[in-house]
Amino acid sequence: MNYSEQLIKKCEIMAKNEFDKLDEIALYNQKKVLDAFKKNRVSAMHFNPSSGYGYDDIGRDTLNKVFSDVFHTEASIVSPLIANGTHALTLALFGLLRPGDVMVSIAGKPYDTLDDVINGTGNGSLRDFGINYKQVELTDAGKFDYDSIRRVLESNRIKLVFIQRSKGYAWREALTVEEIGEVISFVKSIDSNIIAMVDNCYGEFVEKNEPTDVGADVVVGSLIKNIGGGLAPTGGYISGKNALIEQISYRLTAPSLGLEVGSYLNGYLYFYEGLFLAPSTVRNALKGNVLAGYVMQTFGYESMPAVGAMPTDIIKSIKFDTADEMVSFIQTIQCLSPVDSFVVPEPWDMPGYNHKVVMAAGTFVQGASLELTADGAVRPPFVAYLQGGLTYEHYKLALMDIIEYFNKIKC
Fold it and tell me: What is the mean pLDDT of the chain?
């Protein structure tokens, strides 16, 4: 047994408690998904394609019901017509907000891709339609700032509170479902009519509960992340209260059509099968996430979540000493990818960023964050964001190569 294999074995022993908890969570979520399939009597006919208007598309309509049962909500939109998570969030915001309304993000700044959606000028943004935006930063500890939230809610007539569950490119923990539930309860105690909307990307099946189990009115996510199980080739979902989903459906298609139309010629097999596999694939990614923390700690690198802590999304942030170390780490992930392993990613001026970005993305589905990928902006602090991993074995193989590299430069 070589050094990398010995270190992996040692780290797996240290991670046993976290691994046992992740297995328990996966089993719970697998039963939840299985029960939803059984309740809705899913059969082969639901996988068939549809064309044209898509009237009475039983595959589409049943998939919506299965997602609603998984999230314990009244209604859902699950559609390959949704391009990605940003598109799903945009549909939800435009479906729920009207001119003169005010929305507030209470978990700080959302992802960069929402900047133009919210505050763009002349591009059909929320701002162009007279919808106002406010923002409350998290505390230095990465927690909700209840005093500031209260001030904003009491001094404005807020229509919608927006919560981004994942940490994105911030050096902090992702928000837990418990924390989200507590802040939603606080918001509703001030004004029960406020809509609580959660960006659920990177968080599905990480815990036993979802935000809709603790008071969220609407959750939104991408099918090429956790809940697509690595099989969904495209699409997004929106799940929540029936009246809210109905309003959003008018934005998805047209006010006269809603969810009555929308065909998909390729059929729905991968969406159903991906959802069924998702609790297991998410668990695989999380076990790799935990293992990576122990491995990188061996070489003196700090990670977030910290070693010994349970992950709250599928992203592991690792802080490096130099830009070269960070870039080499990400390049190693690319070379261990099943797709484009021969490609060497280099830092480049990616649109929307003030610094060069380097990205490893050798995935079967373009941009699929549930597959093992890594990226980061090349700037101090030099943080690589490691995410996904369809199989735990793939994650281990990647870490073995990383061990060999850092063992050379550190020893």
Answer: 95
Tokens of 43: 């059969």
Q: CA-to-CA distance for 361 and 308, rounded, in angstroms? A: 27
Backbone φ and ψ of 234, nearest 5°:
-170, 180
Given this model, what pLDDT does residue 350 score?
72
Closest CA to 34 of 61, 63, 70, 64: 70
Whether the predicted model's global pTM rises above the 0.90 cut: yes
Across the strands, what pairs with 236?
A: 79, 222
Asked if 278 and 33 touch (Cβ cutoff 8 Å), the reply is yes
pLDDT digits (tens, 9 = 90+) for 16-48: 999 999 999 999 999 999 999 999 999 999 999
Asked if 89 and 117 touch (Cβ cutoff 8 Å), the reply is: yes
Tell me the sheet residues that pair with 160.
Answer: 103, 195
Other beta carbons within 10 angstroms of residue 36's beta carbon come to: 20
Render pLDDT for 266-297 as a digit per residue (tens, 0 to 9). Answer: 999 999 999 999 999 999 999 999 999 999 99
The alpha carbon torsion through 314, 93, 53, 273 (nearest 10 deg) reads 10
